[in-house]
Specification:
Elements: H1 3-16, E1 25-28, E2 31-34, H2 35-39, H3 41-45, E3 54-58, H4 64-75, H5 88-91, H6 106-111, E4 118-121, H7 131-134, E5 138-143, H8 146-159, H9 169-178, H10 186-196, E6 202-206, H11 207-212, H12 214-224, H13 231-240, H14 243-247, H15 284-297
Parallel strand pairs: 3-4, 3-5, 5-6
Antiparallel strand pairs: 1-2
Helix pairs in contact: 12-13
Length: about 300
């Protein structure tokens, strides 16, 4: 995408900024989605990707942008300048996102791109357009420990003026457990991709593994994508996708989104990127309540999440 197109994208967001509001949620097949997504659902569901397209799927705030940056660098042999050609949402469009005009939707951006494309989604497996599986597209899913994911999503909802008002943290925990947040229950989300991963050739990654040994996980992604880059390039990618590097990278830190939409004075888009931060937020009573509910909701599947206790 040209510099002119990058500017037009930012200008469109700034122009619409004054009309941005916290959009209500509407259920699509039982999953709460922002009203603009729900109102455009037929077009989203009908999207037919090219077999060469790659889908990066996560529950919100589970390492999406991190994975997008790793993939883009792998596809460009670690060329940092090539990966600064545009902000993340332009390089790797958000499939289902829709906002008031003149902000282009994810579908609008994808129409202007030639395959192969890297496409982001937060949709649970059952809402992913069937064309992805019919065309045998590759897909990478990243899952994050529920408590850390909840805390990160809470801060995101505080600063993202398009999401419903999060309210107090204590109440947010209950919303998370009941699946009342945008894109629905975390539990169903992580389980839906887990049970389909073998059948659909989905690379299922864990945020905690990526933090523990980023080089190992970058290599896993490289092999899954049938790429071959040198050890030197792998090391460079690990450095370029460290939390510190990405937080300082204007093409990855979402500073392209103006403050009426993402108010980063409330909370940065890239806040901490840590494992175990939930311990700074949950009381012992909240943790006990959450753990009991978690055990019940996850009893039918054995996904090897780290307990982080």
């Amino acid at each position: 995408m040209s510099e002119e197109e990058n500017l037009s994208y930012k200008e469109a967001i700034e122009k619409a900024g004054s009309s941005i509001t916290r959009f209500p949620l509407i259920h699509i097949r039982g999953v709460p989605l922002m009203c603009h997504i729900a109102n455009n659902w037929d077009s989203i569901w009908a999207f037919c990707p090219d077999p060469s397209d790659l889908l990066i799927a996560t529950y919100p705030k589970a390492g999406t942008t991190w994975t997008q940056e790793i993939v883009d660098l792998l596809l460009h042999n670690g060329d940092a300048e090539a990966c600064k050609r545009a902000p993340t949402p332009i390089r790797s469009p958000f499939l289902e996102i829709c906002s008031p005009p003149p902000i282009p939707s994810g579908l609008d951006l994808l129409k202007k791109m030639d395959p192969p494309r890297v496409i982001k989604t937060h949709l649970p497996f059952q809402l992913v357009p069937p064309g992805f599986w019919e065309n045998k597209c590759k897909a990478i899913y990243v899952a994050r420990n529920a408590k850390d994911n909840l805390v990160s999503y809470y801060y995101f909802d505080l600063m993202n003026k398009t999401q419903p008002e999060p309210g107090p943290f204590d109440g947010y925990i209950n919303k998370f457990m009941r699946g009342e947040l945008s894109w629905g229950p975390w539990y169903d989300h992580v389980k839906s991709y887990w049970v389909e991963k073998e059948k659909r050739n989905i690379l299922y990654l864990f945020y905690e593994d990526m933090k523990e040994n980023p080089r190992r996980e970058v290599l896993r992604i490289m092999k899954y994508l049938d790429l071959s880059v040198s050890d030197e390039v792998i090391n460079q990618i690990v450095e370029l996708t460290s939390f510190k590097s990405m937080k300082e990278n204007p093409m990855a830190n979402y500073s392209c989104i103006p403050s009426p939409v993402f108010d980063q004075s409330v909370s940065p888009f890239m806040r901490k990127g840590e494992v175990g931060d939930w311990k700074n937020h949950f009381t012992p009573e909240q943790a006990k309540m959450f753990d009991e509910d978690y055990a019940e909701q996850m009893k039918d599947v054995n996904i090897p999440f780290r307990s982080l206790i």
